[in-house]
Amino acid sequence: MKLLRMTMRTALRALQRNKLRSALTMLGIIIGVAAVITMVSIGQGADAAVQKQILSLGNNLLMIIPGATTASGVRSGWGGVSTLTVGDADAIRKECPAVANITYIKRQVVQVVYGDQNWSTVAQGSTPAFQKVRSWGVSAGSFYSQRDEDTANRVVVLGQTVVDHLFGPGEDPVGALVRIKDVPFQVIGVLESKGQTSWGQDQDDLLVMPFSTAVRRVLGTQFVGSVDMVFASTASTGELGAATDQITALLHERHRIQPNQENDFTVRNLNDVAKASESASQVMTNLLLSVASISLLVGGIGIMNILLVSVTERTREIGIRMAVGAKARHILLQFLVEAVTLSMVGGIAGALLGIASAQLVSYFADWPTLLSPVVVTGSVLFSGAVGVFFGFYPARKAARLDPIAALRYE
Amino acid sequence: MAQPLIEVRELWKVYQLGDLEVQALRGVTLDIDSGEFVAVMGASGSGKSTFMNIIGCLDRPTRGAYHLNGVDVSTLSPDARATIRNHQIGFVFQSFNLIPRTSALENVELPLFYSDVPIAEQHQRAREALAAVGLMGREGHMPNQLSGGQQQRVAIARALATRPSLLLADEPTGNLDSQTSIEILSIFQRLNLDGGITVVLVTHEPDIATYAKRVIMFRDGVVVSDVRQQPAAAAPLAEAAV
Question: Is residue B181 over pLDDT 90?
Answer without folding.
Answer: yes
